[in-house]
Amino acid sequence: MESYCQELSRYIHLNPVRAEMVEAPEDHPWSSYGAYAGLKRKPFWLTTSLILSYFSPEEAVAQKSYREFVKEGLQIPIRNPLEEVYASTFLGSEGFIDRIWKKRRGQTVQDSRNMSALKFLAGKPSLNAIKEAVERVLGSSDRLSRKFGLYVSRQKCGYALREVKSFYGMKEAAVSQAVGRFRRAILVTSSLKKKLQQILNELELSNVET
């Protein structure tokens, strides 16, 4: 989880630069980057210790390392770490997702206030069930069926790359790329969003954020 926190912090602090609002992250007047990087005084309400502790136990060293880490993000393409959120709920490595799933497998949902998370923890449909639900909505020969199957299995139900690639007979890199492209397509295409919701309804996951 440590690497995700580091990447997310850097991604947020570089947002004003990507948006071409400023040339450097420290130039944005409302950014907390300066406090993290040791370039300005930290306001009393801001906590920087969690992120900085990943770089060094010594504050000055951690701040210097963080500055270098963010600077590196200006020189190389970096991915949005939020694209790795599973089931609209969890951010972490596949190992972390697997541990959460195994720990809660078979337990009963007692509280429905956070339905998307609890449905995931309490149980998730099998890969076969996902494929069948997709085919009920789209038909087995629809060219979108495979894309929806990959996307729902990976992004909405949290299956690991190795599980999805084995089920669909693909390479892990191909699965990851296909899911990423389809996720972006869904965000901007209302007809795809509607089909996704129909599939989630079939799987009784209608409360999962889409």
Q: Note the overall shape.
A: elongated
Q: If strands are numbered along the chain, what order do they take across the biggest sheet?
A: 1-2
* Distance from first to last alpha carbon: 24 Å
- Cα-based radius of gyration, to the nearest Å: 20 Å
What's the overall average pLDDT, rounded? 80
CATH class of the largest domain: Mainly Alpha
Q: How many helices?
A: 12
Write down the CATH topology of the largest domain. Answer: Chromosomal Replication Initiator Protein Dnaa, Chain: A
Largest sheet: 2 strands, antiparallel
Strand proportion, as a percent range, falls in under 5%
User: What is the string of SSEs from the N terminus onward?
Assistant: HHHHHEEHHHHHHH
Please tally the β strands and state the result: 2
CATH architecture classification of the largest domain: Orthogonal Bundle
User: Uncertain segments of ≥5 residues (pLDDT<50)?
Assistant: 106-122
Backbone structural class:
mainly alpha
* Count of the domains: 2
The residue fraction in helices comes out at 55-70%
